[in-house]
Amino acid sequence: MPHEVIMPALGMAQDSGVIVSWLKNPGDPVKTGDALMEVETDKATMEVEAAHDGYLADVRAGAGDSVPVGQIVAIISETAERAGAAPVETGAERPAPAGSPAQGGPGAVPEGHEVIMPALGMAQDSGVVVAWHKEAGEAVAEGDALLEVETDKATMEVEADRAGYLAAILAEAGDDVPVGQVIAVISAEAPEAPIRRAMAAAPQAEAPAPKAAPAARAEPAPPPVPARTAPPTPRPAAGPKPAGRVLASPRARRLAAEEGLDLADLVAAGHAPPFHVADLETLRALPKAAPAQAAAGAGAVGVVSAEVDAAAFDAFRAWLQEEGTAPSSPRLLAAFAAGALRAAREHAGPLTVAAGTLGTTTAWNDPDRAPVSADLPESDARPELILRDLTGTALTGIKPAAAPVPVVTITRRGDTLALHLAHDATLPEEAALALLSGLADRLQEPLRHLL
């Protein structure tokens, strides 16, 4: 079957994206992960990758076109013969969700600003709702965290991009929602009857009324079963730990990691996710794992976090731009990270650090020992530290995974930079603390730490 290519949401407040250029021509074969086109928003320009193998067909928007988020811009067909034809059962836009203001009818969603499921990655088709932080009908301010969303790569908070009232919640915790689908509505006025329902509970438009069932004879109610004959309801039997990711809030994950707790133990004990901080009390009360099981978690990832004011770092980059010597953001951050790692390890020898943005990484040798404006050659050596600059994305939090080297992730919320260092036993805890503290100092006072 053909697959739709839609305009993704690259940010929380994005309503549309401008196609900069197509990187494939109609009829070209594409593989999963191939760059199809470049999309520009008011915050970034990024490549949109193919999520399926096939042939590019039915391109519906050209370079320079501004396309609403969620609208179809092309089709990936299964065969080259069908690459030039528009597939059947595909419209220019996705149908409005049942019960939306466009459809009306009983249970219709109040009018207001629609909050959609964002795309946290180029090949992401859907996201799972972890938890709502606001109740239906509750007032929200711009920047308030509305809900947590999880994909196969990250867990993040979705923020309100305007003030108002949460008039409708259209997906509950655990629902897997396609990218671009409306999950909530923010109205300007307090709603008289706020709506909250799961995605599967949305009313179907124009559903035929059920036929009246024929009257049945009244049957006498069965006698109550004596209490002595009713066996007690058994507690769910403990099963094996799940192999996949356990659905939980980021804070619950962080606290569990800090205490050395495994959220999978809750699932094995018969408790249903998603899990929150309150569930950690139940987890702590569970019987301790056997020594062999405890040893299996010895390689768990340690996480250290910090927050700094971005004003000094922003001013420093602006000054470099005025001087005409501004390096790329990853190159500048690599210099600061290398200096912090060198001081934390008391390391005087060669040091390789890799840094980059979403999807691109470059390694340099000793970036802290050269002027920040120097154009260093790329290194093929294995880096001793990886830094990911996600300040230009909508991501505000991340669940680090195990990596062969320490990984620093930098995100941004307003005027605050959030730093997260994931490390294992190869970087002792004291060195990890010194590394992140040193990097935070360099970002807050850049001029003091330049060589």
Protein model, in words:
There is one protein chain. The chain has 451 residues and is α+β, with helices and mostly antiparallel strands. The protein has 4 domains: 3-82, RNA polymerase II/Efflux pump adaptor protein, barrel-sandwich hybrid domain (OB fold (Dihydrolipoamide Acetyltransferase, E2P)), CATH 2.40.50; 113-200, RNA polymerase II/Efflux pump adaptor protein, barrel-sandwich hybrid domain (OB fold (Dihydrolipoamide Acetyltransferase, E2P)), CATH 2.40.50.100; 250-293, no CATH class; 303-449, Chloramphenicol acetyltransferase-like domain (Chloramphenicol Acetyltransferase, 2-Layer Sandwich). 16% of the residues lie in helices and 25% in strands. It contains 7 helices and 23 strands. The protein has helices spanning 250-259, 264-268, 279-285, 291-296, 311-323, 329-345, 429-444, and strands spanning 3-6, 16-22, 29-30, 35-40, 45-49, 54-57, 66-68, 72-77, 113-116, 126-132, 139-140, 145-150, 155-159, 164-169, 176-178, 182-187, 195-196, 302-309, 352-356, 362-365, 385-389, 407-413, 416-423. The chain has a 6-stranded mixed sheet, sandwiched between helices. Strands 9, 11, 14, 16 and 17 form a 5-stranded mixed sheet that branches. α6 packs across α7. It is globular and about 65 Å long. The termini are far apart. Residues 85-104, 204-237 and 290-298 have low confidence and may be disordered.
